[in-house]
Amino acid sequence: MVVALLVVVPLLLTGGYNSAGEPYGELSIDPLTPVGLVMVCLSLAAAVPIVIATTRLAHDLPGGWIMSVVGRLRWRWLVTCLGLATLALLGSVLLALVLPEHGGASVEGSVNEVTDRTIAFALIVLLLIPLQAAGEEYAFRGYLTQAVGGVVSGRVGTAVAVVVPALLFALAHGVQDPPVFIDRFLFGLVAGTLVILTGGLEAGIAMHLLNNWVFFGLALAFGDISEALAPVAGTWWLLPGTLVQSLGYLALVAWVARRRSLETTTDSVVAVGVLEGKRPRV
Protein backbone atom coordinates (compact mmCIF):
# COMPACT_ATOMS: atom_id res chain seq x y z
CA MET A 1 0.00 0.00 0.00
CA VAL A 2 2.84 2.40 0.81
CA VAL A 3 4.48 1.81 -2.56
CA ALA A 4 1.12 2.25 -4.28
CA LEU A 5 0.62 5.63 -2.61
CA LEU A 6 4.14 6.74 -3.52
CA VAL A 7 3.41 5.94 -7.15
CA VAL A 8 -0.22 7.04 -7.45
CA VAL A 9 0.06 10.48 -5.81
CA PRO A 10 2.75 11.86 -8.17
CA LEU A 11 0.96 10.33 -11.16
CA LEU A 12 -2.30 12.03 -10.17
CA LEU A 13 -0.54 15.34 -9.63
CA THR A 14 1.30 15.34 -12.92
CA GLY A 15 -1.72 13.94 -14.74
CA GLY A 16 -3.80 16.79 -13.36
CA TYR A 17 -1.27 19.37 -14.50
CA ASN A 18 -1.20 17.77 -17.93
CA SER A 19 -4.99 17.78 -18.30
CA ALA A 20 -5.01 21.43 -17.25
CA GLY A 21 -2.83 22.21 -20.23
CA GLU A 22 0.26 23.28 -18.32
CA PRO A 23 3.44 23.11 -20.44
CA TYR A 24 5.40 21.45 -17.64
CA GLY A 25 2.95 18.55 -17.67
CA GLU A 26 4.24 17.28 -20.99
CA LEU A 27 6.32 14.12 -21.07
CA SER A 28 9.88 15.32 -21.62
CA ILE A 29 13.30 14.68 -20.13
CA ASP A 30 15.16 17.35 -22.13
CA PRO A 31 14.11 19.75 -20.76
CA LEU A 32 12.91 17.79 -17.77
CA THR A 33 9.24 18.12 -16.84
CA PRO A 34 7.38 16.72 -13.82
CA VAL A 35 5.78 13.99 -15.93
CA GLY A 36 9.17 13.23 -17.46
CA LEU A 37 10.73 12.85 -14.01
CA VAL A 38 7.88 10.56 -12.93
CA MET A 39 8.46 8.34 -15.95
CA VAL A 40 12.23 8.23 -15.37
CA CYS A 41 11.80 7.34 -11.69
CA LEU A 42 9.20 4.66 -12.35
CA SER A 43 11.19 3.10 -15.19
CA LEU A 44 14.24 2.78 -12.92
CA ALA A 45 12.11 1.65 -9.96
CA ALA A 46 10.80 -1.15 -12.17
CA ALA A 47 14.18 -2.81 -11.65
CA VAL A 48 13.01 -3.87 -8.18
CA PRO A 49 10.20 -6.23 -9.28
CA ILE A 50 12.20 -7.27 -12.35
CA VAL A 51 15.20 -8.30 -10.22
CA ILE A 52 12.98 -10.11 -7.71
CA ALA A 53 11.15 -11.95 -10.49
CA THR A 54 14.39 -12.82 -12.28
CA THR A 55 15.89 -14.17 -9.07
CA ARG A 56 12.85 -16.35 -8.53
CA LEU A 57 12.31 -17.54 -12.11
CA ALA A 58 15.86 -17.81 -13.44
CA HIS A 59 17.66 -18.88 -10.26
CA ASP A 60 14.85 -20.50 -8.26
CA LEU A 61 15.66 -18.33 -5.24
CA PRO A 62 13.44 -16.12 -3.06
CA GLY A 63 13.74 -12.48 -4.13
CA GLY A 64 14.47 -11.46 -0.57
CA TRP A 65 18.02 -12.81 -0.82
CA ILE A 66 18.82 -9.93 -3.17
CA MET A 67 17.97 -7.50 -0.38
CA SER A 68 20.03 -8.86 2.50
CA VAL A 69 21.36 -11.98 4.19
CA VAL A 70 18.20 -12.19 6.30
CA GLY A 71 16.01 -12.45 3.22
CA ARG A 72 14.36 -9.04 3.51
CA LEU A 73 15.08 -5.33 3.69
CA ARG A 74 16.20 -4.33 7.20
CA TRP A 75 14.24 -1.11 7.64
CA ARG A 76 15.74 -0.04 10.98
CA TRP A 77 19.21 -0.49 9.54
CA LEU A 78 18.20 1.52 6.46
CA VAL A 79 17.06 4.43 8.65
CA THR A 80 20.30 4.22 10.62
CA CYS A 81 22.28 4.38 7.39
CA LEU A 82 20.35 7.48 6.30
CA GLY A 83 21.52 9.18 9.47
CA LEU A 84 25.11 8.07 8.90
CA ALA A 85 24.93 9.25 5.28
CA THR A 86 23.82 12.66 6.52
CA LEU A 87 26.84 12.88 8.83
CA ALA A 88 29.17 11.95 5.97
CA LEU A 89 27.52 14.52 3.72
CA LEU A 90 28.10 17.22 6.33
CA GLY A 91 31.79 16.34 6.25
CA SER A 92 31.94 16.91 2.50
CA VAL A 93 30.05 20.21 2.91
CA LEU A 94 32.64 21.40 5.43
CA LEU A 95 35.38 20.50 2.97
CA ALA A 96 33.57 22.40 0.20
CA LEU A 97 33.75 25.55 2.32
CA VAL A 98 37.54 25.58 2.10
CA LEU A 99 37.87 24.54 -1.55
CA PRO A 100 38.52 27.18 -4.23
CA GLU A 101 35.40 28.82 -5.63
CA HIS A 102 35.94 27.20 -9.03
CA GLY A 103 35.62 23.84 -7.34
CA GLY A 104 31.98 23.93 -8.31
CA ALA A 105 30.61 23.02 -4.88
CA SER A 106 29.19 26.45 -4.07
CA VAL A 107 25.51 27.37 -4.31
CA GLU A 108 25.10 30.62 -6.18
CA GLY A 109 22.18 32.90 -6.92
CA SER A 110 18.94 33.59 -5.11
CA VAL A 111 16.30 31.10 -4.11
CA ASN A 112 13.96 30.27 -6.97
CA GLU A 113 10.34 31.37 -6.84
CA VAL A 114 7.96 28.73 -5.52
CA THR A 115 5.40 27.86 -8.20
CA ASP A 116 2.98 25.01 -8.89
CA ARG A 117 5.72 23.50 -11.04
CA THR A 118 8.18 23.72 -8.14
CA ILE A 119 5.74 21.99 -5.80
CA ALA A 120 5.09 19.25 -8.36
CA PHE A 121 8.82 18.60 -8.76
CA ALA A 122 9.37 18.68 -4.99
CA LEU A 123 6.68 16.07 -4.32
CA ILE A 124 7.99 13.82 -7.08
CA VAL A 125 11.55 14.09 -5.78
CA LEU A 126 10.42 13.38 -2.22
CA LEU A 127 8.19 10.41 -3.08
CA LEU A 128 9.70 8.76 -6.15
CA ILE A 129 13.45 9.32 -5.85
CA PRO A 130 13.55 6.65 -3.08
CA LEU A 131 12.09 4.14 -5.54
CA GLN A 132 14.51 5.24 -8.27
CA ALA A 133 17.52 4.88 -5.96
CA ALA A 134 16.31 1.48 -4.76
CA GLY A 135 15.79 0.29 -8.34
CA GLU A 136 19.36 1.12 -9.34
CA GLU A 137 20.78 -0.50 -6.22
CA TYR A 138 18.71 -3.68 -6.69
CA ALA A 139 19.99 -3.96 -10.26
CA PHE A 140 23.66 -3.05 -9.85
CA ARG A 141 24.53 -3.92 -6.24
CA GLY A 142 21.83 -6.54 -5.78
CA TYR A 143 21.55 -8.75 -8.82
CA LEU A 144 24.85 -8.00 -10.59
CA THR A 145 26.96 -8.20 -7.44
CA GLN A 146 25.49 -11.59 -6.53
CA ALA A 147 25.62 -12.88 -10.12
CA VAL A 148 29.25 -11.90 -10.68
CA GLY A 149 30.25 -13.06 -7.20
CA GLY A 150 28.69 -16.43 -7.88
CA VAL A 151 30.78 -16.97 -11.02
CA VAL A 152 34.26 -16.20 -9.69
CA SER A 153 35.27 -17.72 -6.35
CA GLY A 154 37.47 -16.47 -3.55
CA ARG A 155 38.70 -12.97 -2.84
CA VAL A 156 39.15 -12.31 -6.56
CA GLY A 157 35.46 -13.02 -7.03
CA THR A 158 34.55 -10.64 -4.22
CA ALA A 159 36.66 -7.87 -5.77
CA VAL A 160 35.23 -8.47 -9.24
CA ALA A 161 31.71 -8.48 -7.79
CA VAL A 162 32.33 -4.95 -6.52
CA VAL A 163 34.30 -3.50 -9.45
CA VAL A 164 32.25 -4.76 -12.41
CA PRO A 165 28.85 -3.42 -11.23
CA ALA A 166 30.52 -0.12 -10.26
CA LEU A 167 31.99 0.23 -13.75
CA LEU A 168 28.69 -0.66 -15.42
CA PHE A 169 26.87 1.80 -13.14
CA ALA A 170 29.15 4.65 -14.22
CA LEU A 171 28.94 3.68 -17.90
CA ALA A 172 25.14 3.49 -17.71
CA HIS A 173 25.01 7.26 -17.22
CA GLY A 174 26.23 7.82 -20.78
CA VAL A 175 28.83 10.25 -22.10
CA GLN A 176 30.23 12.38 -19.27
CA ASP A 177 33.31 14.33 -18.27
CA PRO A 178 36.10 12.17 -16.75
CA PRO A 179 35.69 13.67 -13.24
CA VAL A 180 31.96 12.88 -13.27
CA PHE A 181 32.61 9.34 -14.50
CA ILE A 182 35.19 8.76 -11.77
CA ASP A 183 32.84 10.27 -9.19
CA ARG A 184 30.12 7.78 -10.14
CA PHE A 185 32.59 4.90 -10.33
CA LEU A 186 33.85 5.69 -6.83
CA PHE A 187 30.28 5.78 -5.57
CA GLY A 188 29.72 2.35 -7.11
CA LEU A 189 32.86 0.96 -5.48
CA VAL A 190 31.81 2.19 -2.05
CA ALA A 191 28.21 0.99 -2.47
CA GLY A 192 29.44 -2.42 -3.60
CA THR A 193 31.87 -2.69 -0.71
CA LEU A 194 29.05 -1.81 1.67
CA VAL A 195 27.06 -4.78 0.37
CA ILE A 196 29.91 -7.07 1.43
CA LEU A 197 30.53 -5.33 4.75
CA THR A 198 26.88 -5.13 5.80
CA GLY A 199 25.33 -8.11 4.04
CA GLY A 200 22.64 -6.10 2.28
CA LEU A 201 21.59 -3.21 0.07
CA GLU A 202 20.42 -0.84 2.80
CA ALA A 203 23.62 1.19 3.16
CA GLY A 204 23.96 1.70 -0.59
CA ILE A 205 20.31 2.68 -0.96
CA ALA A 206 20.64 5.21 1.87
CA MET A 207 23.69 6.92 0.36
CA HIS A 208 22.21 6.86 -3.15
CA LEU A 209 18.91 8.27 -1.91
CA LEU A 210 20.44 11.09 0.11
CA ASN A 211 22.77 12.10 -2.72
CA ASN A 212 19.87 12.32 -5.16
CA TRP A 213 17.62 14.15 -2.73
CA VAL A 214 20.32 16.76 -2.12
CA PHE A 215 21.20 17.11 -5.80
CA PHE A 216 17.61 17.56 -7.00
CA GLY A 217 16.76 19.70 -3.98
CA LEU A 218 19.57 22.15 -4.71
CA ALA A 219 18.68 22.23 -8.40
CA LEU A 220 15.07 22.93 -7.50
CA ALA A 221 15.89 25.64 -4.97
CA PHE A 222 18.77 27.46 -6.65
CA GLY A 223 19.27 26.12 -10.18
CA ASP A 224 17.30 24.85 -13.15
CA ILE A 225 15.87 21.42 -12.45
CA SER A 226 14.78 21.09 -16.07
CA GLU A 227 18.47 20.65 -16.91
CA ALA A 228 19.36 18.54 -13.86
CA LEU A 229 18.77 15.02 -15.12
CA ALA A 230 22.01 13.00 -15.49
CA PRO A 231 24.57 15.84 -15.36
CA VAL A 232 27.61 15.14 -17.54
CA ALA A 233 29.84 18.14 -16.83
CA GLY A 234 32.07 18.62 -13.80
CA THR A 235 35.54 19.53 -12.62
CA TRP A 236 38.21 17.56 -10.78
CA TRP A 237 37.21 19.45 -7.63
CA LEU A 238 34.28 17.04 -7.40
CA LEU A 239 36.58 14.28 -6.25
CA PRO A 240 37.86 15.60 -2.87
CA GLY A 241 34.30 15.98 -1.64
CA THR A 242 33.35 12.58 -3.03
CA LEU A 243 36.29 10.90 -1.30
CA VAL A 244 35.57 12.55 2.05
CA GLN A 245 31.87 11.72 1.90
CA SER A 246 32.23 8.18 0.55
CA LEU A 247 35.14 7.04 2.70
CA GLY A 248 33.69 8.76 5.77
CA TYR A 249 30.38 7.00 5.20
CA LEU A 250 32.12 3.68 4.61
CA ALA A 251 33.99 4.01 7.91
CA LEU A 252 30.88 5.06 9.85
CA VAL A 253 28.75 2.22 8.48
CA ALA A 254 31.45 -0.38 9.08
CA TRP A 255 31.92 0.83 12.67
CA VAL A 256 28.20 0.88 13.50
CA ALA A 257 27.66 -2.50 11.83
CA ARG A 258 30.37 -4.03 14.02
CA ARG A 259 28.95 -2.39 17.14
CA ARG A 260 25.54 -3.85 16.35
CA SER A 261 26.94 -7.25 15.39
CA LEU A 262 25.03 -6.93 12.13
CA GLU A 263 24.60 -10.15 10.17
CA THR A 264 26.79 -9.89 7.07
CA THR A 265 26.84 -13.45 5.74
CA THR A 266 24.45 -16.38 5.64
CA ASP A 267 24.89 -20.13 5.79
CA SER A 268 21.48 -20.76 4.27
CA VAL A 269 21.44 -23.41 1.57
CA VAL A 270 19.44 -21.09 -0.69
CA ALA A 271 22.03 -18.30 -0.66
CA VAL A 272 24.44 -17.79 -3.51
CA GLY A 273 27.15 -15.30 -4.41
CA VAL A 274 29.38 -13.08 -2.34
CA LEU A 275 27.17 -13.11 0.77
CA GLU A 276 27.52 -16.83 1.42
CA GLY A 277 29.10 -17.66 4.74
CA LYS A 278 31.74 -19.81 3.09
CA ARG A 279 33.02 -16.90 1.03
CA PRO A 280 35.80 -14.69 2.39
CA ARG A 281 34.71 -11.14 3.05
CA VAL A 282 36.39 -7.95 1.85
UniProtKB/TrEMBL annotation:
Keywords: Hydrolase, Membrane, Metalloprotease, Protease, Transmembrane, Transmembrane helix. Coiled coil: none annotated. Residues 121-214 form the CAAX prenyl protease 2/Lysostaphin resistance protein A-like domain. One of its GO terms (molecular function) is endopeptidase activity. GO terms for biological process: CAAX-box protein maturation; proteolysis. InterPro entries: CAAX_protease (IPR052710), Rce1/LyrA-like_dom (IPR003675). This is CPBP family intramembrane metalloprotease. It comes from Nocardioides immobilis. The lineage of its organism: Bacteria, Bacillati, Actinomycetota, Actinomycetes, Propionibacteriales.
